[in-house]
Design a protein that fits this description.
With 162 residues, the chain is of the alpha+beta class. It folds into two domains: 20-80, Beta-lactamase Inhibitory Protein, Chain:B, domain 1; 84-158, Beta-lactamase Inhibitory Protein, Chain:B, domain 1 (2-Layer Sandwich). 27% of the residues lie in helices and 32% in strands. The chain has helices spanning 2-17, 31-38, 84-87, 96-103, 151-158; strands at residues 43-47, 50-56, 64-70, 75-80, 108-111, 117-123, 130-137, 142-149. The chain has a four-stranded antiparallel β-sheet with strand order 1-2-3-4, covered by helices on one side. Strands 5-6-7-8 form a four-stranded antiparallel β-sheet. A hairpin with a 4-residue loop joins strand 3 (64-70) and strand 4. The chain starts with a helix and ends with a helix.
């Protein structure tokens, strides 16, 4: 019973600090208000007309929020970018920077054997136990991209072999 109350208390304290997603109506909020609500951004990028704050909710999170600010620093919109619509836009030949502009930081990065590059993995909301993976060559160019089975699903499938 003590553990229940401990978990409840810690959860309440953490949620008081920042939220997982953006406030329901963030339009017009100043950047510092967005950060107070969501925590510090992972990245801040200059985009046309202003700035974009990036809030990946990984490594196990299934969302990355981009919050757009106008030139005066006021929030204009937010979008969750880990979607299949964005994944299909990832193609061989794209640069690492292009991928970061579209999806933000990956939840997990694994090196490939013989220094052939890395695999970037993005968890996302789906019912199929999949994640989206991008093979990045050493020259930071996309070699391939597609869907793979989450490691915890593979472990679950082989756990009860008769």
């Amino acid at each position: 019973m003590r553990m229940f109350w401990w978990n409840l208390t810690v959860g309440a304290l953490l949620s008081a600090c920042s939220g997982y997603g953006p406030p329901k109506d963030l339009t017009g909020l100043m950047a510092d208000q967005v950060v107070a609500a969501m925590g510090p951004p992972d990245a801040q990028r200059v985009v046309e007309g202003g700035t974009r704050l990036e809030f990946p909710r990984g490594p196990a999170g299934r969302h990355t929020w981009f919050v757009y600010l106008d030139a005066s620093g006021r929030a204009t919109r937010a979008e969750q970018v880990l979607t299949e619509e964005n994944f299909i836009r990832i193609n061989p030949g794209m640069s690492q920077d292009d991928v970061l502009l579209l999806l933000g930081r990956p939840g997990e990065v694994q090196g490939l054997a013989r220094s052939r590059g890395t695999v970037w993995s993005y968890r996302y909301e789906n019912n199929s136990c999949l994640w989206f993976q991008i093979e990045m060559a050493q020259d930071q160019i996309v070699r391939s991209a597609g869907y793979g089975e989450l490691p915890e699903c593979r472990a679950r499938d082989t756990a009860f072999v008769p």
